[in-house]
Amino acid sequence: MSNSFHPPVRTLMGPGPSDVNPRILEALSRPTIGHLDPEFIRLMDEIKALLQYAFKTKNELTLPISAPGSAGMEAVFVNLLERGDKAIICSNGAFGGRMQENVERAGCTAVMVNDEWGQAVNLEKVETALKQHTDAKLLAFVHAETSTGVGNDAKALAALGQQYDCLVVVDAVTSLGGIPLEVDAWGIDAIYSGSQKCLSCIPGLSPVSFSPKAVEVIKSRKTKVQSWFLDMNLVMGYWGQSTKRSYHHTAPINPLYALHEALLCLQEEGLVSAWERHNLHHRAFVSGLEAMGLSILVDQASRLPQLNAVRVPDGVDEALLRRTLLNQYDLEIGAGLGALAGKIWRVGLMGFASSQKNVLHCLSAFESALVAQNLPISTGRAINAALKVYS
Amino acid sequence: MSNSFHPPVRTLMGPGPSDVNPRILEALSRPTIGHLDPEFIRLMDEIKALLQYAFKTKNELTLPISAPGSAGMEAVFVNLLERGDKAIICSNGAFGGRMQENVERAGCTAVMVNDEWGQAVNLEKVETALKQHTDAKLLAFVHAETSTGVGNDAKALAALGQQYDCLVVVDAVTSLGGIPLEVDAWGIDAIYSGSQKCLSCIPGLSPVSFSPKAVEVIKSRKTKVQSWFLDMNLVMGYWGQSTKRSYHHTAPINPLYALHEALLCLQEEGLVSAWERHNLHHRAFVSGLEAMGLSILVDQASRLPQLNAVRVPDGVDEALLRRTLLNQYDLEIGAGLGALAGKIWRVGLMGFASSQKNVLHCLSAFESALVAQNLPISTGRAINAALKVYS
After folding, report:
1. B379 vs chain A: nearest CA distance in angstroms?
2. Dihedral angle, C-alpha B256, B262, B263, B264, nearest 10 °
3. What is the value of ipTM here, to two decimals?
4. What is the CATH topology of the domain spanning A22-268?
5. B29 neighbourhood in chain A, CB within 8 Å
């Protein structure tokens, strides 16, 4: 017979989930109520308003999909596209490739604009594709590539999409709450995120937002959305005005308590302060790494503060280092994916995990794990370098 | 600025979610760990084994989909069907209609076998359809119709499906853990359930199970599954053998702690005891109702113990009664849907909510709310009748 599962207490500095604020875990465990309860409907309204704040949007259709970020991605593509449509997809990491899968499974054509993993999306190549494919319905790109630590220039890409009359679709799974993002000001038409990155909530929910233009596209479709569960025509009825809500599915009540609390934390801190905090701890962390002789894969201009791709030095066993961190320090960091497997570690400084305590803990752990692998580094310099940034 | 959300403490006796055992809420709030953590992978293995116990199956492909029951339903249909396929769907309530939506959105034909809401699926009509449509790929039906309180004869329906060489698909959202269900012995090929009914976990997860025959169908598809998120070829890689798991999405860590705990509770009690408990409290509840002069919509032979469709007596304002129960007793029950709106209340006795305390609480509340609406009932008789069943 199995026993109750008592997880180890880890420090989560991988590509997500990130450390969850205890306040959010406490909210999660409050008593379950029904999804048609007037009190729950009030909560839904508050969550919508808090998400509008986080996304910097007035979009009415702003809500969390009752499933992880990958379902949010799928919701955006299957609602905006109909069979035979064409979409331009920027790909410079794992998640651009996933977008392509979604477009093709909806019976549509994906025109790929590929850039190297670790490089930012090239604006000129995107403009060339837009000029060449004037029949494209949408332009999609990843704001913060979790697989490489690259931040793409969402503002400029969105402007390009608008200029060529495409719907602008943004993957903000790892960007929301961590770096500047302005849905309305930048002209984004559809965006999806995840709960478990810079919002520091538990995984399993995907905040989305659709502009009035995108809503018009969804409402005037000629064919039904291929997914019943993700059909925004039905989902917006469920999350719509309190007075005339219609049953669709059963919302995940307790995770929504947690998301509400996570969004409250963000609002209390303030978006700009949260962005600055992510930036500060990133700078301290990188200073420490560099003092240890390590380096970051991504050019300074495109680096994400919340996801640091650290090059694995020659002669170091990257998997062994991760195991040492996990087993001796209860510290989780991520491995490289695809072409970058074995070449980088991915260190997240997301949401609640973006803190001085975590930066110093991680630097110490790295230092001692590298020394254990006989890498000739002078100990103590990393912490000093990081502390200098804080002082 | 919004404040933290502190839900009222309700008694959940609607069509779901049901009362959640505090032990499960406590498990839910344990520290989040990464979805690639060796400890989490161990948890996934335990959940799979516990679900096999609950479903009475040896099916290797048995796991929880990271989304609510409606996504579980969609996962089953989009994986088993390819465009142009034909499916026979039994419909005697809201969820048969939802199956039809799923089949049609997958580009397939749904042959509907309709029965009245409140009646069980007619086996002869199903056999006629099976004889007529020898090209049908699957037969699908709802085991426990949450919209009407009717239990369909899953064992007999599954046997019919097998006899005519159809894959047998079962909606067990409200049946799993509440009434006898034997996936292997009855020859069920694909089944989905929900976490928030007789398992008494929070809403948001959908346990599913596929027979080896169904897995073979999925693996030998000619076309890709239209949903990337629900593609079982990818999901089974993620939930597969610990030694070679491949990343798909990020599992909802904490809700899976809760599901694990809920399944442990079920295993500790024992499946047969759980079924007997649901039956006992149902009988006590119905005795009490009848002593009050109320009656159940569904024939005794097809009644679900976990979902009681109570007829609204003439002259009673059904919505007012529900409001009274909610506001004065913190007690949630459900309304009728579709053709039964205004004609029935739906009273759930599911999982942790299937208890003597809840039965007596609900009977008292009903009695006093009906007296308040001037229904001439003799008070006190309901409780006595219920207690007689317990004695």
Report:
1. 29
2. 110
3. 0.97
4. Aspartate Aminotransferase; domain 2 (3.40.640)
5. 25-26, 28-29
